[in-house]
Protein: Probable GTP-binding protein EngB
Amino acid sequence: MPIFRQAVFFQTVADLRDLPGDAVREVAFVGRSNVGKSSAINTLADHTRLAFVSKTPGRTQHLNFFALSAGKYFVDLPGYGFARTPEDIRGQWEGLLAPYLRYRAPLAGLVLVMDSRHPLAELDRHMLEWFAPTCKPVHILLSKADKLTRQAQAAVLHTVMEAVGKINVHCSVQLFSSLKRMGIGEAEAVLGRWLDMRIEDAERTEIIGAAAGADTHAAPSLPQQPGSRRGKVARVKNRRAIGWSARTAGKAGKEAGGRAGGKAGADG
Ligand SMILES: Nc1nc2c(ncn2[C@@H]2O[C@H](COP(=O)(O)OP(=O)(O)OP(=O)(O)O)[C@@H](O)[C@H]2O)c(=O)[nH]1
Ligand SMILES: [Mg+2]
Structure:
């Protein structure tokens, strides 16, 4: 079972004063408009309409919190690079996004989503440079990988991992596709570690299946979680290691007024 399947919409935040006070660890999704941030959250949560997805860029306007378990959140951020008035952009950045990203203590790390066909745009590089002083990790999802051939996927992964290592050493990179559900295991491994959520529990069913001899696929070892039994290695079935690392570096149940099961998620 995917470890983030319990995700429910929690709260939209337009003002720093409204940030959830019970947060222990959270992971924010950033990136240019329309790259697939909200789709990635839905995919990781194994939910089609949790975060609002749109063909129209700029639909996610505020910070949207999704509760994963007690005090643990995914945060869907507005995309950058969408042409609104410069005053709007500056106001939102200075008043909300910049202080949130720089000073939010529970923020465990950043998922930077980049369209695998157009990675490392100027604003992406700025984000990596600007966030580096926090010393918090960044995990890059090269999204919409389904639009590329396997050869092009390998090439972009290589190019991006070389480039980001020079900009921000606390970075890891992987291919991802919400459409083809590609790269979910790799993302879960990284984000589960950041959020201190147990992957072993979620994967137990699969592990038992593998132990019964059903799977001889050479799957990657997942990082040992605190409290996990010594020597027990979680094996994820049928998931290929496609990532790279530059450096090894009680409100969950709260329903959001029916939004989680509603027509659209945040900013809908
Ligand atoms: N082919 C393909 N399309 C995708 C994928 N992920 C998202 N999309 C499409 O890309 C568009 C934008 O997706 P969103 O998830 O809304 O993107 P976003 O980054 O949240 O956009 P903003 O909130 O506007 O910043 C939608 O039409 C999605 O269906 C993917 O993995 N493959
Ligand atoms: Mg969005």
